[in-house]
Amino acid sequence: MELAEEDSNEETVEIDRESSTGFPLREAHHYITHFPGAVRKKAYRFDGSGRYFNKEWDLTEGSGRGFCWYHVELPRGNQKLSLSAQYLIDVLCPPLKLQDILSLVSNGPFCSHVDGALFFRVNSPGPTSSNFTIRIAARVTENSVITVSLGRVPRLGFSPTGQSLLSEIPSVENPNLVSGEKEGNGIVIREHVLEFLLTMNHSEEADNPVPETVSRLVVHVVDTHVDHLQDILTKLEIELDSVELELDKGNYN
């Protein structure tokens, strides 16, 4: 009897050791979130045939032709880089390890294989509170992609076809109507909305082609960040033109 109890205890210790060194699934355990709502998250599942589905944040990988995409949007602000790392640890660990988190959040450009996954990171100089600072990082495996951005990146996600404002028939603004009301066969679009759309170098999420492979998804992520950079440059040029106009008018001392 004593020998049987000793064997049982040894098995229990071995099981505990294996569970502490493995990668348990998130749904099998209840993890405490230390920063609820600190970051915005998106999760998609792609079937590899041109269809996508919204999914829960479980960080599982796809199977067969299918693959998954998990995106984390870090907030803009004056927080330290270590706090951004804690945000990622809070939503990505497990299964990610510390070296994965450091590869995603550290400063400077980076591209390498880390623990069987491809990592790349591009950071522009400047404080994280600035709207002119861009950061993108990704972890790519055969059946999953995890990306991290600083702030919102337009057109990055996916929306059902037909929900795009660009597919609507516009109507000239009538001061007696509220923005969004339809007048006749068109939807009324205010001047400030037109000004915003004219500064965009891209379409909307509903117009995004659904990627059928992981590589096409990575191209989509990079492409949207390039568009975002062009948007920032356009806005900067507009602001500089405005300042130059004010200087020409002599409104600055």
Automatic annotation (TrEMBL):
Compositional bias (Acidic residues): 1-13
Region (Disordered): 1-21
Family matches, as PANTHER family: OS08G0130000 PROTEIN
Name assigned to this protein: Uncharacterized protein
Species name: Kingdonia uniflora
